[in-house]
Amino acid sequence: MPDVFCGNTDKCQMCPKSVENAVFHVFHKQGFHIPVIRSEFNFMLFILKGEILVNSEEYAGTTVKTGEFILQPITAKIEILAMIDTECIYYRFNQPELFCDKRYHHIMNDIPGPLINTPLKIVPALEYFLICTNTYLSEPKICRELLSLKRKELAFILGHYYTDYELASLIHPLSQYTTSFQYFVIQNYKKVKTVEEFAQLGGYSLTTFRRIFDAIFHVPVHEWMTEQRKESILYQLRDDRLSISEICFGHGFESLSNFSNFCKKYFGDSPRNLRKEKSAEIQKILQ
């Protein structure tokens, strides 16, 4: 059997070489809304058809239209709203594939990032890549080697068809996260329940971890972890696919009444009323 591909696609989901897919072909109906969340991975958003309103530090109130794409780095806070029916491809990753080490360092050291980020155009070669990729990268798990090859191909297309200045708008946001303490925090905060566990996971003493965390995030660790919990709860309350009970017990609350008290304290209303506000907020934005 060949070392890379066995040819039996029916068994890919059970193959030990399969990994979680990182490429997602998605259709969003007009009004689809992702409230403000903190991204837990780097991702690129390619719009094949339609328009999406993006609000983040990098793209404040920016409409990404048909034939455009953006990159959002890990830890970025982002909100998304489909202005019309939209077809798009999400590509997420931890460490980026580099098109060329020498050119990467040249852009990092000699090419400043744009003062205002704007979406990049999808050139024909990239469009062909996206369409072709969509035909066979649609399963929940895919071959690790295939995904690696497609990542390298994407890196080649970006390096070959885009200027240094255009690539600077992708590279500079990534550089400040991928090797940082922030990256460790965002990748691991859901794995722990206490500050002590967090420090131990990173191999820090409790005092050192708190000192570094405060210097970078400018807020105590416990307070920051509480804020992440609040953001996650509010996000899930606006997702109709999850019941209130699932959200409640999934976040460690002992009862629905405790969960309701938490929501009233931090959000000013009950979980059910917060969920009802979703459609009204979206309609107001679309007007």
From TrEMBL:
<dbReference type="Pfam" id="PF12833">
    <property type="entry name" value="HTH_18"/>
</dbReference>
<dbReference type="GO" id="GO:0003700">
    <property type="term" value="F:DNA-binding transcription factor activity"/>
</dbReference>
<keyword id="KW-0805">Transcription regulation</keyword>
<keyword id="KW-0804">Transcription</keyword>
<protein>
    <recommendedName>
        <fullName>HTH araC/xylS-type domain-containing protein</fullName>
    </recommendedName>
</protein>
<keyword id="KW-0238">DNA-binding</keyword>
<dbReference type="GO" id="GO:0043565">
    <property type="term" value="F:sequence-specific DNA binding"/>
</dbReference>
<dbReference type="InterPro" id="IPR009057">
    <property type="entry name" value="Homeodomain-like_sf"/>
</dbReference>
<feature type="domain" description="HTH araC/xylS-type">
    <location>
        <begin position="179"/>
        <end position="277"/>
    </location>
</feature>
<dbReference type="InterPro" id="IPR050959">
    <property type="entry name" value="MarA-like"/>
</dbReference>
<dbReference type="InterPro" id="IPR018060">
    <property type="entry name" value="HTH_AraC"/>
</dbReference>
